[in-house]
Design brief:
- The structure is a single chain.
- The protein contains 13 helices and nine strands.
- With 296 residues, the protein is of the alpha/beta class.
- Helix 8 packs across helix 12.
- Bound molecules: nicotinamide-adenine-dinucleotide.
- Nicotinamide-adenine-dinucleotide binds next to helix 4 and helix 6.
């Protein structure tokens, strides 16, 4: 597998595509943004004039787009890529989208004789740049083995969650829990500070006690407690509140469709919605702390 078509070169897709180039793959790239295209062209990719142009001669297609409607628009319909790709082509969608759309697109790929995987990622923009992403894959095991070298060029951990759509379901479960844990951590720290505790001392105590979690260990929401966390740089350069809100919305839809209760996920979605409405949608999601404790 040598030539890869990469569609969607944003905050995540751009550095992921750059890592494929570093590993010696030939890349045909396409994005609606001329700036994003120019960056990859400067790094050695062939800048295509359309998605259809990008897949010409490609052995595999990777997409990294904002949401389900973009993925459907790219692949389905008369002018979609599935109508143009040679049978047997491997298609890997790394976007975070709802599992129902992922299954619908995978079924259309199957009908067209194509091999599709959903492979959403965890690890953020830093992981994308460093090539240390976690891929959470849904689809046939044989196709995952075909895709493995490609994924290894962009990531460190690769999990097979199950059949088509399972990668998206697992990703959404993880991110719902992350949203809940971050809000809970912010609430606990604000309660302690309101009652006279130092946020760093309380964080150290929680980190060695039963309330410890990813936020207290690696991504503390209180400014200044953890030097490398977004909270210590004005909540910039992390995972935007808007994207967390999107994922909590996907969790809610998944719960509705499967008749599952998700009271905490739903509460967290409402908290992040209010937070976004208050003007913090572009800040890192750990800024939910401001909901519990006003910062200067
Ligand atoms: P982004 O908005 O930076 O990039 C999306 C890119 O897709 C843009 O450059 C846009 O121009 C392009 N695009 C949209 N429609 C297109 C089309 N039809 N054809 C070609 N290009 C098109 O978003 P991002 O942060 O890179 O996120 C991409 C996906 O990864 C999302 O589903 C997001 O939820 C997921 N994700 C993001 C992060 C993160 O930390 N940013 C972490 C994990 C997963």
């Amino acid at each position: 597998m040598q030539t890869i078509a990469f569609i969607g070169l944003g905050n995540m897709g751009g550095p992921m595509a750059a890592n494929l180039l570093k590993h010696g793959y030939k890349l045909n790239v396409f994005d609606l943004s001329a700036d994003a295209l120019a960056k990859l062209a400067a790094a050695g990719a062939r800048s295509a004039s359309s998605a259809a142009d990008a897949v010409r001669g490609a052995d595999a297609v990777i997409s990294m787009l904002p949401a389900g409607r973009h993925v459907e628009g790219l692949y389905l319909g008369e002018s979609g890529l599935f109508a143009q790709l040679p049978a047997g082509t491997l298609v890997v969608d790394c976007s975070t989208i709802d599992a129902a759309t992922a299954r619908k697109v995978a079924a259309a790929a199957d009908a067209a004789g194509l091999k599709m995987l959903d492979a959403p990622v965890s690890g953020g923009t830093a992981g994308a740049a460093a090539g240390t992403l976690t891929f959470i894959v849904g689809g046939a095991a044989a196709e995952l083995e075909r895709a493995r070298p490609l994924l290894q060029a962009m990531g460190k951990n690769i999990f097979h969650a199950g059949a088509a759509g399972a990668g998206q379901t697992a990703k959404i479960c993880n991110n719902m829990l992350l949203g809940i844990l971050m809000a809970g951590t912010a609430e606990a720290l604000a309660l302690g500070v309101k009652n006279g505790l130092d946020p760093k001392v309380l964080s150290d105590i929680i980190s060695q006690s039963s309330g410890r979690n990813w936020a207290t260990e690696l991504y503390n929401p209180w400014p200044g407690v953890m030097e490398n966390a977004p909270a210590s740089r004005g909540y910039s350069g992390g995972f935007m509140t808007e994207l967390m809100l999107k994922d909590l919305g996907l969790a809610e839809e998944t719960a509705l469709h499967s008749h599952a209760a998700n009271p905490l996920g739903s509460l967290a979605r409402n908290l992040y919605e209010e937070h976004a409405q208050a003007g913090f949608g572009k800040l890192d999601f750990s800024s939910i702390l401001k909901h519990f404790h006003p910062l200067d």
